[in-house]
Amino acid sequence: MIGVARLNNLHDCVRTVLEDGVPGDFIETGVWRGGACIFMRAALEAYGDRQRTVWVADSFEGLPRPGKDYPADIASGFDFYKFNDVLGVSLEQVKSNFKRYGLLDSRVQFLKGWFCDTLPGAPVQRLAILRLDGDMYGSTIEALESLFPKVSIGGFIIVDDYVAIPECKRAVTDYRAKHNITDTIIEIDRDGAYWRKS
Ligand SMILES: C[S@@+](CC[C@H](N)C(=O)[O-])C[C@H]1O[C@@H](n2cnc3c(N)ncnc32)[C@H](O)[C@@H]1O
């Protein structure tokens, strides 16, 4: 789903954290069929990394209905959940997609469930890459709240929908303002953007 420019960005981020020795695992929150996570696991293999884990976080049943906790998602009118017949891909299917590439092993860990339930207590210690692709305000800010503090200095935060979806951008803006984060955000293409944690 993410296209060549965002795959190239992901490749650059992986290569940079490996070259610079930035400690931590990689995670994507919002994986759909698993493409970006499979790519990250494959890149670790290709570069000979034997340590890091790729965390794969999703409901595996699509996006949540907007709730009262996040009025921005109600006001947006996107109603992504109405497309869950396409956006909801089962855990079994995603595992099978990893398997097709010979990349399903113990260094791929799955966090199944809504982010509000799985991310706050997730057994993730430290991250070098945090890739957010949950589309909605709530899904974006929940992932930032639980996982941004675990990103190492020199690690990357990639936001797949920052340019394309105003509610996603707003979640990032609110989180950064609350925590006085001023690192420069760089746009990748007409959808995604990223920054490096200083
Ligand atoms: C646009 S798709 C992700 C595309 C994917 N990154 C790729 O590389 O193809 C959005 C995904 O986010 C998941 N998602 C969104 N909000 C969620 C939430 N609050 N909890 C769990 N999963 C969520 C959906 O199930 C869906 O798989």
What would you say this structure looks like, in words?
With 198 residues, the protein is an alpha/beta fold. Helix content is 39%, strand content 18%. The protein is built from eight helices and seven strands; from the N terminus they run αβαβαααβαβαβαββ. The protein has helices spanning 3-20, 35-46, 71-76, 84-87, 91-100, 115-118, 137-147, 166-178; strands at 25-29, 54-58, 108-112, 127-132, 151-159, 186-187, 193-196. A seven-stranded mixed beta sheet has the order 3-2-1-4-5-7-6, with helices on both faces. Strand 1, helix 2 (35-46) and strand 2 (54-58) form a beta-alpha-beta unit. Helix 7 packs parallel to helix 8. It is globular. The model has no long low-confidence stretch (mean pLDDT 97). S-adenosylmethionine is lined by residues 1-2, 28, 30-33, 35-36, 58-59, 62-64, 87-88, 114-115, 133-136, 139. The site of S-adenosylmethionine has 23 residues, from helix 2.
Low-pLDDT stretches are none
Helical stretch tally: 8
Range of strand content: 15-25%
Please summarize the sheet with the most strands.
7 strands, mixed
The helix content, as a percent range, equals 25-40%
Query: In one word, what is the shape?
Result: globular
Question: How are strands sequenced across the largest beta sheet?
Answer: 3-2-1-4-5-7-6
Please give the alpha-carbon distance between the first and last residues.
29 Å
Q: SS-based structural class?
A: alpha/beta
Ligand kinds? S-adenosylmethionine
Mean pLDDT, all residues:
97
Record field, number of beta strands: 7
- Indicate the radius of gyration in whole angstroms: 16 Å
